[in-house]
């Protein structure tokens, strides 16, 4: 997150003595990214954060690839993914490449008996259904329908849900997730033409601090495997931190759409960037207002990007037979566009209530076995008249 945040108690100068009321020391940790070049946070712990007690299990969570090379458009029925009690087990990778995994998840239960840490990837968790609290060692964030939760790699977290009815769309990104560079000035401040500003980004305001010893299981993801590591101190033992590297939330409902006289291209919907894919938010908005405007998108060849749309809510004017929870995959290399009749019925429409999240990847996506379980194999013929 490209702005400074401070929470809890910290000493006036970094890397200096910081003592507890009983005269013993707090333990400082510099939590850096991209070596010492990226965003970092200095945190202060009740106990040393290095106390590994035991490494128990190590098991693969690599996606099972069904189609490594894909030229077929797909529709996936996301809500057909069966709810499961456990959060990690509920995460089903449906599309994957060397830069990211696209995951559907319907967890019924909060993470109770373990903590989770992804060391390889930033996680962008979009809340389609459900509400609750993201609890991390750098503070908590309440979440509800429409929130993007950005959890940078290495943040130890748990998810508390209010009910059993939860649907998450998750992008696990091996490339750091940032706000779009073109919307930032040279200091990192979001500019006037940005569709959102700092006030819309929610930072942790509540810090849970436990000075406890015992057995604390952290499930740590590294290189497509989970390591069950037992620590001797509670992972949430931070009394304070400051810096730029922390989790934050942004609601899709706070994205201000950019409109025009003629059809605006997808970059106006861009919400986050990496150097390997973009994430866009399609939100309720007024349509184009040229007297001869065609509100439906034109056919387009995203010749070198795979395009993934996750449909959240509202009407989806350019598609026939698309519902909330569906994913469409339009692969690089071939054109796609409105379904038959969609362009014609868009004429004269003045607004849309659609809500969708798009992920455009610059490298092709592989289709997994989990995806084929919920796929419409005939979708690729749906433009035939
Ligand atoms: Fe498209």
From TrEMBL:
<comment type="similarity">
    <text>Belongs to the homogentisate dioxygenase family.</text>
</comment>
<dbReference type="Pfam" id="PF04209">
    <property type="entry name" value="HgmA_C"/>
</dbReference>
<keyword id="KW-0560">Oxidoreductase</keyword>
<dbReference type="InterPro" id="IPR011051">
    <property type="entry name" value="RmlC_Cupin_sf"/>
</dbReference>
<keyword id="KW-0408">Iron</keyword>
<feature type="domain" description="Homogentisate 1,2-dioxygenase C-terminal">
    <location>
        <begin position="277"/>
        <end position="383"/>
    </location>
</feature>
<dbReference type="Pfam" id="PF20510">
    <property type="entry name" value="HgmA_N"/>
</dbReference>
<dbReference type="InterPro" id="IPR014710">
    <property type="entry name" value="RmlC-like_jellyroll"/>
</dbReference>
<keyword id="KW-0479">Metal-binding</keyword>
<feature type="domain" description="Homogentisate 1,2-dioxygenase N-terminal">
    <location>
        <begin position="59"/>
        <end position="251"/>
    </location>
</feature>
<dbReference type="InterPro" id="IPR046452">
    <property type="entry name" value="HgmA_N"/>
</dbReference>
<protein>
    <submittedName>
        <fullName>Homogentisate 1,2-dioxygenase</fullName>
    </submittedName>
</protein>
<keyword id="KW-0223">Dioxygenase</keyword>
<dbReference type="InterPro" id="IPR046451">
    <property type="entry name" value="HgmA_C"/>
</dbReference>
<dbReference type="InterPro" id="IPR005708">
    <property type="entry name" value="Homogentis_dOase"/>
</dbReference>
């Amino acid at each position: 997150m490209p702005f400074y945040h401070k929470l809890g108690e910290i000493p006036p100068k970094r890397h200096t003595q910081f003592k507890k009321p009983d005269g013993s020391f707090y333990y400082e940790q510099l939590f850096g990214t991209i070596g010492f070049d990226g965003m970092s946070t200095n945190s202060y712990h009740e106990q040393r954060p290095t106390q590994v007690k035991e490494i128990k299990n190590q098991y693969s969570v690599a996606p099972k690839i069904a189609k490594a090379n894909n030229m077929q458009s797909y529709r996936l029925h996301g809500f057909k993914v069966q709810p499961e009690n456990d959060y990690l087990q509920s995460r089903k990778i449906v599309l994957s490449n060397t830069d990211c995994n696209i995951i559907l998840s319907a967890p019924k239960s909060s993470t109770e008996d373990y903590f989770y840490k992804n060391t390889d990837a930033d996680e962008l968790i979009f809340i389609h259904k459900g509400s609750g609290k993201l609890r991390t060692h750098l503070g908590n964030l309440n979440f509800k329908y429409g929130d993007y939760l950005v959890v940078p790699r290495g943040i130890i977290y748990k998810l508390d849900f209010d009910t059993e009815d939860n649907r998450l769309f998750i992008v696990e990104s091996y490339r750091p997730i940032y706000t779009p560079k073109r919307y930032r000035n040279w200091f990192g401040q979001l500019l006037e033409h940005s569709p959102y500003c700092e006030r819309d980004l929610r930072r942790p305001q509540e810090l849970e601090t436990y000075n406890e010893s015992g057995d604390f299981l952290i499930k740590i993801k590294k290189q497509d495997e989970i390591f069950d590591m037992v620590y001797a101190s509670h992972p949430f033992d931070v009394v304070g931190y400051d810096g730029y590297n922390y989790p934050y939330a942004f609601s899709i409902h706070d994205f201000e759409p950019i409109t025009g006289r003629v059809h605006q291209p997808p970059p106006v919907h861009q919400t986050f960037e990496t150097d390997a894919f973009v994430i866009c938010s399609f939100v309720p908005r007024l349509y184009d207002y040229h007297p001869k405007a065609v509100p439906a998108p034109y056919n387009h060849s995203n010749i070198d990007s795979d395009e993934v749309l996750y449909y959240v809510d509202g009407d989806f004017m350019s598609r026939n037979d698309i519902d909330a929870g569906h994913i469409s995959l339009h692969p690089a290399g071939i054109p796609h566009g409105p379904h038959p009749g969609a362009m014609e019925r868009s004429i004269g429409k003045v607004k849309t209530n659609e809500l969708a999240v798009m992920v455009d990847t610059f490298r092709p996506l592989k289709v997994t076995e989990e995806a084929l379980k919920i796929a419409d194999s005939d979708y690729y013929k749906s433009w035939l008249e």
